[in-house]
Design brief:
This protein is 28% helix and 33% strand. It has 166 residues and is α+β, with helices and mostly antiparallel strands. It has one domain: Aminopeptidase. Keywords: Acyltransferase, Transferase.
Amino acid sequence: MTAAAPIIDGLTLADAPRCAALEMQMFAGDSPWPEAAFRAEMKAPYNTYFAARESPGAEVMGYAGISMLGGPGAYESEIHTIAVDPGRRGRGYGLALLRAMLAVADDAGAPVYLEVRTDNHTAIGLYERHGFATAGIRRGYYQPSGADAYTMVRPARTEHTQEAPR
């Protein structure tokens, strides 16, 4: 039996406690975001945050956020975070969240930037399959662990740009 596709909707302020709990579970060694950080990020007008759920209104199983910077004709976007409950990985939650964020960037014709741990091969592969390339490395980016990060970028999509295979 195939699992149902995740439901992607907007992350709400009521979801902040669950997101903070997931952060503590997944990123305890690298300054996990507290509930207040999620609330502040969701309130910023240039940010868009998504939730992945098993069904409408269900508990958050994954979350992601993207910011839109600049102005018409010169937008850039940056993926702030994308995370999936470890018990739900491999079920399409990360892919669905990434596609939602890329749609935001594509609607604005914006390139997309992100940082990813150099040892997160699963995420790097997902990003590469969606048109991202490594642009540089940030030594000691994640704190306090000191883990390195790649900066990756996906060029802006236009109606004439071929999309990477999914």
